[in-house]
Amino acid sequence: MNFGKWARLLFAAIPLLAGCAGFWDAPTNSSGGTTATTLSSGNFYILNKGTTASQIYGFSIVSGKLTALSGSPYVVTGVAFSIAPDPTGSFLYVSSTAGVFIYTINSTTGALTQGAQISQDTIAEAIAVDPGGAWLVEALGTGVLNAIPITSTGAFDNGGTRVEQQMVMGGIQVQQMVFAPNHTFLAVALGSLGTQVFPFTSSAVSSPIGNALTPTINPTNTANTGAAIAVSVDPQSRFLYIGETAAFSSTTNSGGLRAFSVSAANPLAVTELSGSPYASGGTGPHAIQPNAAGDYVYVASWQGSSDGLITPFQVSSSGSTYKLTALSNTIATGIEPFGMAEDNLGHFMLAVNGGGSPTLNGYIFDTTTVGKLDLTHADSTASSPIAIVAAP
Length: 392
Prior knowledge:
Methylamine Dehydrogenase, Chain H, eight-stranded antiparallel sheet, mainly beta, 392 residues, 47% strand, 0% helix, 29 strands, five-stranded antiparallel sheet, globular
């Protein structure tokens, strides 16, 4: 987990291995889920867009109970677009119609304190921090990527030796943006214009963003109906995942997950896996969340005004040949799931739903069926969430 006109979100948290994070038993669950648990989570943050004012809601799950962080919700200046954590878990960045602001995360309580304005760009529809922690990248609604140097304290590196860079993208339909965990490339989903991949050098003094992959990865359906709306990268930087609408001819289940292998030596050398695109269900997969081992990928899709669904895929290999297999144990979300994150303890998978019913779902990993999620929490404190991130 970045963030677009349909689904402005960043799959910024790198999840931990699912299914091996402990055991659960069955006390009373007060959070509306169907499976009780006594597990606890790390801190996570929901970006709530609102109609005229936005907020950040901070939570953790304590012995199975959803618990608000001290001071939550936290004020956002302007109407929100996107949220991104830094790799140390010390800061959050939020972009809005007022620019990009930094928030300091209290190391004890997880509470947020809004700090300085990092950028005055008011159309940063997606933001991400490179895994090296040296650059904040904005994807602007004008079709430009902007790389901003930041310091170890998260501030704009004003007066340093590094130079801000701008790079033109192939379109203005910014949906999501993601960095590869090895910070060798970033990818931007650009709706009907497809997906662009850019090489990236975190240690660069200037021009960290290289020239994009040419041609752009076009949608499977190029008859102006297919669109790239979600993008994610395998935690080992082996695969690029793209969620597309109209990948299949079905009118109700046309959403598809595409998977590409990425060369370690050349991040622009991408090859689509045999069998891709894979049917993800629903009309469009708006969130893609792999686990830390890279052997499972969870895809959240819309189903019109009905509940959304999460489809799990298992990643397997035969020698150097990889494939994805959709598992049968799909699970319902609320309406219009916008984003997913796994908490940093590896106990919970979390989903936020812009259409409500509820706006937050929490799941634990089933201990007997591989890849399966069990619903534990359902909450609607945040009224109109557009993204969720877990503190690293």
